[in-house]
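Figure 2 data, in text form.
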Amino acid sequence: MSKVVERMVCDHWDGVVCSESELGAPSFEDAWYAIQSLNGAERTMVCLYAKNGNTLSVGGASGRFVVCASTPDGELLGLVGDEHCDQLDSIALNIGGQEGLYMPRQVCSGPRVESVLKAFFQSGNFDRSSSWEPEHE
């Protein structure tokens, strides 16, 4: 049970119909299991909400993830990827039930996501030792 993260929401797709499951005060292990269970079909995104108002969203599948963060004052950040940076082609991922093309610098590996997730569960803040870029709506 987390003292920092107050809830986790996961999507569940059945064709074009989406339902969500919510878990209050998830543990790090709950969140990491949910992220590892993302399959790009029925499960495509996990959102974590900290008590301080910060959110961390992870989408993707098969060891390729896009991580976004937001603050209560509306700042949106994207984690800079650690893999595929030499790849020029965009990477197709189903996140939030819709396939999108992501630049290689937006795509992160599982170990990178695990590290950022641990930092979020410790403080509710974003791992500032990682590179984040402002996102644009």
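Caption note: The mean pLDDT is 93.
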